[in-house]
Design goal:
The protein is of the alpha/beta class. 50% of the residues lie in helices and 12% in strands. The longest helix has 24 residues. The structure holds one RNA strand.
Length: 532
RNA sequence: GCCCCCAUAGCUUAAUGGAUAAAGCAACUGCCUUCUAAGCAGUUGAUCCAGGUUCGAUUCCUGGUGGGGGUACCA
């Protein structure tokens, strides 16, 4: 593995330069195309200052030390890079071992304890929309990546099934049942009309408001589950807010805050003290003067509950419309459960690109599009790929007109096509057409080497995704790898009866490509078809 | 007002502080008798402005400009 190679280099440099501190963060990188060498190290330049030597001098010393059996060429290059080329034998052995044990990726795992990953958590008052789709795609892919490297991840969905909105939902359904319009601040979507038609008419004529609420909530949760499953996302736990109330978690939480002396009373309400507020934040109410709790309190209680279930790492994925909530929650949890590693991923909102005529005609609501409709129109694969293609921090422009086109404009097909092409080659390959070559005797052409080096980079990309808690690096990688493969495919024939050794080497090579493509797509929740 | 995110090619976006800034779409030119042309090869084209830190800045800091979001005893 490259990680092993990297660790070996770190060890050597640490022995040679014991006074240097930056070696832990040393990372090999892929140099730009015009550079000679497969991999590159920029560390000498950052180490120059405290080693009091010129970067090139350090690089020169490092280059001599690093060279070993797996490296054929290693040189120091101004202003202070160490560039090296790995032997064909090393490359080929690594390619052969790709498929062997997934466990070897476990060394990439950043977490030792159980991880709770909460995402989507949309209010159960209507269909899931586009922003939920983005959260679902990012969250589930991240969970898959973490699981791939051996983390224990629990996907969790928080259902706000308590509070005013739920009452209003029940009232809205009741009004529809009675053939009336929903109340002023009620929910007017078509889904309630449909739901009202399917109510068990006999029973519910005796229903109270609460019964309508519960019926609506359970129906909508079911709908969310179905829509998410169609998107390839399944949760381990649907956590109901009402459970917190039933089991007195709000009371317990208030007591804990009191014990820490972080609470005070003002104007008849209970406030979270300024000792625990975030930067630039104000004091916040926990219990209103009418005795009802705010969502701030129940959210704190919910996270204490997560911690009590044994999770050492709590990761939440929120839309940018909740970013103002971040300092508050971080401060509160930092004061109450400082031992827990709590992280929040904020994803920017999904913007609908100005609709083309066609989209406008197809959507009665105009701007609104639900996750369900999206999956129906562009498919699960394209939808998931598009949603994770961008960094969570950047705004996502969703051009429905473009996404509707099921054509080659979609990068997901470009990547999937690699898989289909490779499978096609294997279906045509005859067992007697290839002759085994021992790794020590393997020689790779420039095209083959370039492809192999990129395949081996797979683990480094996973590492980057984990560090940034974002799967978008993986999509970039897959598109780049696909580009290299298609180019390779065009110039290098794999099955060549005249040359059984070459056939063997190339088949093993594209088997490696297939592994990276199939695993990568799988981590994104995108299928890898064998035929297209 | 205050807080957060964003600004890269005509459009949508990539790029652990590193070398000649990378793709797709759009435009133009070639390539199917050969493992799938949903492909390949090529041409045109970009870091918002002004300072600062650094050997080195698209990346970090400060101040602008422009866009988005947030600022409840709402949920």
């Amino acid at each position: 593995m490259l990680i092993e190679l990297e660790n070996r280099i770190k060890k050597i440099l640490r022995e040679k330069f014991p006074e240097s501190q930056g070696i832990q963060s040393l990372s090999i990188s892929l140099p730009p195309p015009h550079i000679k060498g497969n991999y590159s190290i920029a560390w000498p330049m950052s180490a120059a200052k405290h080693l009091k030597k010129s970067p090139l001098e350090i690089a020169g010393e490092a280059a001599l030390l690093i060279k070993d059996d797996s490296i054929s060429d290693c040189e120091a290059v101004p202003p202070g890079f160490v560039n090296f080329t790995v032997k064909d034998e090393f490359c080929f052995r690594e390619i052969l071992s790709l498929n062997e044990k997934q466990q070897k990726y476990f060394c990439l795992s950043p977490f030792t304890g159980a991880v709770n990953l909460e995402f989507v958590s949309a209010n159960p008052t209507g269909p899931l929309h586009l922003a939920s789709g983005r959260a679902a795609a990012i969250g589930d892919s991240l969970a898959r990546i973490l699981e791939f490297v051996g983390c224990k991840v629990s996907r969790e969905y928080y259902v706000n099934d308590a509070g005013r909105q739920v009452e209003i939902l029940g009232l809205s359904l009741k009004a529809r049942f009675e053939g009336k319009e929903p109340p002023e601040n009620g929910y007017r979507g078509e889904y309630l009309l449909k739901m009202a038609k399917n109510l068990p008419r006999k029973d519910c004529s005796r229903w109270g408001n609460k019964d309508f609420s519960e019926f609506a909530i359970s129906k909508i949760i079911k709908m969310h589950k179905t829509d998410l499953a169609a998107f390839g996302v399944e949760f381990d736990n649907w956590f109901l807010e009402s459970e917190l109330h039933k089991k007195s978690w709000l009371k317990k939480t208030l007591e804990k805050i009191k014990r820490k002396k972080l609470i005070y009373e003002k104007d008849g309400a209970l406030w979270f003290g300024s000792g625990a507020k975030g930067r630039g934040d104000k004091d916040r109410v926990l219990v209103k003067s009418d005795g009802r709790n705010t969502y701030f309190l129940s959210d704190i209680a919910y996270h204490l509950n997560k911690s009590s279930r044994g999770f050492k790492h709590i990761i939440d994925i929120w839309g940018a419309d909740h970013h103002g909530y971040v300092p508050r929650m971080k401060a509160a949890l930092g004061a109450l459960i400082p031992e827990i590693d709590f992280r929040i991923i904020i994803h920017q909102l999904v913007l609908l690109k100005k609709e083309s005529e066609k989209v406008k005609m197809s959507k009665r609501e105009g701007r609104f599009i639900s996750l369900k409709e999206l999956v129906e129109e562009v498919g699960k694969d394209a939808g998931r790929f598009f949603f994770v293609m961008r960094s969570p921090n950047s705004h996502l422009n969703f051009d429905i007109g473009l996404a509707r086109k099921k054509s080659n404009e979609n990068p997901v097909y470009y990547v999937q096509y690699v898989h289909a092409r490779i499978c096609s080659i294997f279906s045509k390959a005859r067992l007697d057409g290839a002759k085994m070559v021992r790794p020590a005797e393997v020689e790779l052409s420039d095209e083959e080497k370039r492809l192999a080096v990129k395949v081996l980079w797979f683990e480094k990309i996973l590492q980057t995704c984990i560090e940034d808690l974002s799967p978008h690096h993986l999509t970039s990688y897959l598109v780049e790898l696909a580009g290299l493969f298609h180019s390779f495919y065009d110039t290098c024939r794999v099955l060549d009866p005249q040359n059984p050794e070459k056939t063997y080497i190339r088949m093993k090579l594209i088997e490696g490509v297939r592994f990276a493509i199939k695993s990568g797509l799988g981590l994104l929740g995108v299928s890898a078809p064998e035929k297209m």
